[in-house]
Amino acid sequence: MTPDATHTEAAPQDGGDGSIKIIGRAVAVLRALAGEREGLSLSQLAERTGLPRSTIHRLVSALEVEGVLVAASATGRVRIGPELVRWAEAGRPEIRSLLRPAMEHLAQTLKETVDLAVLESGRLRITDSIEGRHTLRAVSVVGSSLPLHCTANGKAVLAKLSDAEVARLLPARLARLTPATITRRAALLEELREVRRTGVAFDLEESTPGVCAVAIAAQDAYGTLAALSVPVPAIRFHGREQDIVASLKSAREQVSTVPPVDTLPGSGAHDAPPAS
């Protein structure tokens, strides 16, 4: 038999059932490690996957070479590595694209400015905005940062976090931007409890004089926290609060990856803005 013939016969074995089984076993290892931040030992992986420890050792060694797994301890535990995280990030849709249809629906319905703000590294940043059609309108600057404690966007996002997480994100001193700004932490935490109950946050001229806003929080499958907000000149806001709230709830329900307001913890009907 010639060398070429030998190579021709070996190729199907490399790409046949054997390769498929190897891929399946590697996926089983990755699934076993999902969510295990402290990692697992080879024995634990063998127990969870039902694979021989020798097979686990070969798979883990190969995956470590590729950066898919990394050592989690000096005792042989391994965890998901940065390479796999990068692959996941590459295929991750931006929350902006997920919520854009809801924003367009809101803008068309209310004729007011609609913005999207995302919580990134402890800061709230406007990542998208559609300007209102009125001559007198609120303007949101894409790329700008917003305070968390006195904006509707910020309070909507904070309400999705625990009180301990809120405390870590807030500055030592809550700056007073207008006479209506809440600067006492206890008062802010009380309002956040109401936002958790209703799923709706208000800014009643607390961040900018003459501008009010309503916002709801959204979260994608990757845990990114964001808020859809409708800022409105105060002269046109009062008396329209419930129309804006209803439109926000309706718009978010269009986005299948974001749970409707009624699924938020303790959500219920919101008949009026919180008392200042």
Automatic annotation (TrEMBL):
What are the residue boundaries of the IclR-ED domain, all occurrences included? 76-267
Protein name stated in the entry: IclR family transcriptional regulator
Q: Which InterPro entries match?
A: GAF-like_dom_sf, HTH_MetabolicPath_Reg, Tscrpt_reg_IclR_C, Tscrpt_reg_IclR_N, WH-like_DNA-bd_sf, WH_DNA-bd_sf
Q: Report domain HTH iclR-type positions.
A: 20-82
What PANTHER family does the entry give? HELIX-TURN-HELIX TRANSCRIPTIONAL REGULATOR, ICLR FAMILY, HTH-TYPE TRANSCRIPTIONAL REGULATOR RV1719
Cite the residue spans of the region called Disordered.
255-276
List the Pfam families hit by this protein, alphabetically.
Answer: HTH_IclR (PF09339), IclR_C (PF01614)
This protein's UniProt keywords: DNA-binding, Transcription, Transcription regulation
